[in-house]
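Journal club side-thread
Mid-discussion, someone asked how the predicted structure for our own chain would compare to the paper's figures. Pasting it here so we can look after the session.
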Amino acid sequence: MIDVTSNRLEILLVEDDPGDVLMTREALEESDVDHALTVASDGVVALDMLFRRAGHEGDGRPDLVLLDLNLPRVNGFEVLDAIKTDAELRRIPVVVLTTSRDEDHILDCYDRHANAFVNKPVDFDEFLAVVRRIDDFFVSIVRLPSRERHR
């Protein structure tokens, strides 16, 4: 999240499950999209990175956040609230990527201005395909704000 001059997609993955981190990393590495992936293993670390505190003062801001809901210390709903209520962060797209299929969680995330809610498939190949589609969508189809506008 430091190189703000390149055209690569800067992704912040907020995920505490090492297996899901590994699968996401693998899916992104197999895609044709130029990206940089940074991982926050819990909500506190994610907020420190996003708000540039606790050793992350020099970090840039991500172009996209992939956010799990079930996180230690600070949960995904709280991270989503912090992002979407902050004037400098709220334009960063947040894709909730979770195992939860609870309809209340879906509604709650959209009420908190998540840009998308995606269920993590259990199947390895399906998981890889979903992550690749998210990555491709935000590079090939969506127009993101320029980095200067949210850094």
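Post-session note: Strands lie at 9-14, 35-40, 64-67, 94-98, 116-119.
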